[in-house]
Specification:
The protein is an alpha+beta fold and about 625 residues long. Helix content is about 50%, strand content about 20%. The strands form 4 sheets. Strands 4, 8, 9, 10, 11, 12 and 13 form a 7-stranded mixed sheet that branches. Strands 14, 15, 16, 17, 18, 19 and 20 form a 7-stranded mixed sheet that branches. Helix 9 (about 215-230) packs antiparallel against helix 10 and helix 15 packs parallel to helix 16 (about 480-495).
Length: about 625
């Protein structure tokens, strides 16, 4: 153990001694001051110190975590439940390497009900902590569209984005739109409906989103008969239509139990590398939604740890808590879950691990769905591997690469007599250009190809490492042994070489050079491997030349026209747009130039051209 490790260990020991016994969250940081794990604890002192008690943890992931801890931050909370909510927020914000994460959870849309005087209801993928309510996420977009259409038919809530307030409505700032005239909105923008009545619609819409349609159906039916008794037949007909729409919506939901208990059913499926969880939401005995998530950083975790994390994350994100939760196995800390969920619900609930009967069948149904998701994932991976082009597979064979070079990056430099030195990076994925990943670099003006190659590779890969992004499978530089040696030197300093294969290609004989090999490699002229590499090299050269020309043209514009007193960049651009080039401006009639930029500026330009023509004649 060196002196630096001893210092880190001493600092950690001091912090461990000072830890409070209060509940809260703890954050482990690595040597780059990056948060690598966030956890909650009923007692921070007891929980955090467990990580450093010898060989307490047998799993490899926790052992690896402990070896990377160099600092600990804590946040004390009043209760363990508060710690859980804060933990969930921090995990979503920092995405620590060693925490279980729901993959792509933010890519699925939610239904948002805004926190306003007259709330709006709409689908969104962006969650804002502004008091709005969110329902979802919805993994089936077709069902989400159907649900939104049903809500719009059932309830006349507004679709506009007007910032309605009591003051703006009283001033008559807004007018009703077409939705009001076709009976799709009750006109809150002109105060034609009270906010209390409008929010009753919103409350009923929330009942539909929560799957609680039985109470709503009875309420609408009662209203319909009341209106009919008062001879308000038009309003009664509207309520009848709403009731029929609600029944149509209910009829499309699958009945899975005969009782009317609200349940959430969880299931886990896993293979060697992937973990999937499925949640079935059952309301009044009907299956109203099915969500699935792929979990990252979970392959080494036990089912007890996984189900604990999934349940915590799920109910941190969802307001509605059912009366019964069915799990595939006992969670890691069922007592905490029971206390926390009861306090949030405000009433009793049941957390069960069913072994027989109808509840077991529900867990089996969820597990079957989770197994199906994993099978689909595996099929997609196999399909992806099958679509790798033959040229890429041939390149792996001809260059004797350990892995398929699906992501290849190629560099080329360009300059004109040592000026406007630039470099280009082109990226090919599965043998095809990925132009969104192309990059161009403006370099220091030195007529040294080797130094330029070092500079651009250092800038590229130091940034990828700093941002923790994926590295390519193969790097190619346009040039021979000198450029390749420069590239290897930089990549070795960055710790990238020899993890990644680097080659050089010389244009004269289409020779391939490998690091530390004196002899070049010549591929057959007709081979698909060589044609792919030539395409890469030519594309890098084209991209570099294009960038170089744009810089040169910009410099030409600045030195020719903008050097004329009284002519700035805007005037120069106007002239070039009209006459095509500096030469076109020179050859244009004075009257044409006057029309374009005015008489006074045109006179300055003519005097400038006249003086430069005289100088050229004297030189000649």
């Amino acid at each position: 153990m060196d002196s630096e490790e001893i210092t880190v260990r001493n600092v950690l020991e001091e912090k461990l001694q000072r830890l409070p016994t209060s509940p809260g969250i703890y954050q482990f940081k690595n040597s780059d001051n990056k948060i690598i794990y966030v956890g909650k604890a009923k007692s921070l002192r007891n929980r955090v110190r467990q990580y450093f008690q010898g060989n307490r943890y047998a799993d490899a992931k926790t052992k690896a975590l402990v070896t990377h801890i160099v600092d600990i931050d804590i946040i004390v909370t009043d209760t363990e439940a508060e710690a859980l909510i804060l933990e969930n927020v921090l995990i979503k914000e920092h995405k620590p390497k060693y925490n279980i994460l729901l993959k792509d959870d933010k890519s699925f849309p939610y239904i948002r009900i805004t926190n306003e005087l007259y709330p709006k209801i709409f689908p969104t993928r962006k969650i804002l902590r502004d008091g709005s309510k969110y329902f979802g996420p919805y993994t089936d977009l077709r069902y989400l569209k159907y649900l939104m259409k049903t809500l719009r038919t059932l309830f006349p809530f507004r679709s506009c984005d007007l910032p309605l307030t009591e003051a703006s409505i009283q001033r008559g700032k807004y007018k009703v739109c077409l939705d009001y005239h076709i009976k799709k909105c009750d006109g809150p923008c002109e105060g034609l409906i009270e906010s209390s009545e409008y929010n009753q619609y919103i409350k009923q819409a929330m009942q539909v989103l929560n799957g609680k349609t039985k109470e709503l159906e009875a309420h609408i039916s009662e209203q319909m008969y009341e209106k009919a008794e008062k001879f308000e037949f038009e309003e009664a007909a509207r309520l009848r239509n709403r009731l029929q729409q609600l029944k149509d919506y209910q009829s499309k939901q699958k009945v899975v139990t005969t009782d009317a208990i609200d349940r959430d059913v969880f299931a886990i499926s896993r293979d060697d590398t992937n973990v999937c969880t499925v949640i079935l939401s059952i309301r009044d005995g009907k299956l109203v939604s099915k969500q699935h998530f792929l979990l990252s950083n979970a392959s080494d975790r036990t089912n007890e740890e996984i189900i604990q994390s999934v349940v915590e994350i799920w109910y941190c994100e969802n307001d509605f808590i059912p009366s019964e939760i069915c799990l595939p196995n006992e969670p890691q800390d069922v007592e905490f879950l029971d206390r926390w969920l009861k306090s949030r619900k405000g009433s009793s609930l049941s957390i069960t691990v069913p072994m027989i009967g109808d509840k077991k069948k529900l867990v089996s149904l969820a597990t079957t769905n989770a197994d199906f998701v994993l099978r689909e994932l595996q099929i997609q991976k196999e399909k992806t591997q099958q679509v790798v082009p033959r040229a890429v597979l041939s390149l792996q064979r001809d260059l004797r690469l350990d892995k398929i070079p699906r992501w290849i990056e190629c560099f080329d430099n360009s300059h004109m007599q040592g000026t406007d030195l630039v470099s280009s990076l082109v990226v090919f994925v599965d043998g095809k250009p990925r132009k969104s990943e192309y990059r161009k670099f403006k370099l220091i003006d030195k007529n040294d190809d080797f130094t330029s190659m070092k500079e651009v590779l250092h800038r590229r890969y130091s940034r990828l490492l700093r941002e923790n992004k994926d590295l390519p499978d193969l790097i190619m530089v346009d040039g021979g042994k000198g450029q390749l040696s420069s590239a290897v030197e930089v990549l070795t300093e960055l710790g990238v070489f020899p993890k990644i294969t680097v080659i050089g290609i010389a244009k004269r004989l289409e020779e391939l050079f490998f690091p530390f090999q004196s002899d070049s490699v010549l591929l057959p002229k007709t081979s698909s491997s060589l044609k792919l590499l030539q395409h890469l090299r030519d594309e890098a050269h084209r991209f570099a030349i294009t960038y170089h020309r744009s810089l040169r043209d910009k410099r030409t514009l600045q030195t020719e026209l903008t050097s004329v007193p009284g002519i700035g960049e805007k005037t120069a651009t106007k002239l070039l747009t009209k006459f095509g080039s500096v030469q076109g401006v020179r050859e244009a009639e004075p009257a044409q130039i006057e029309v374009a930029i005015g008489k006074k500026t045109a006179k300055l330009l003519q005097e400038y051209f006249a003086s430069t023509n005289e100088n050229e004649e004297e030189i000649a």
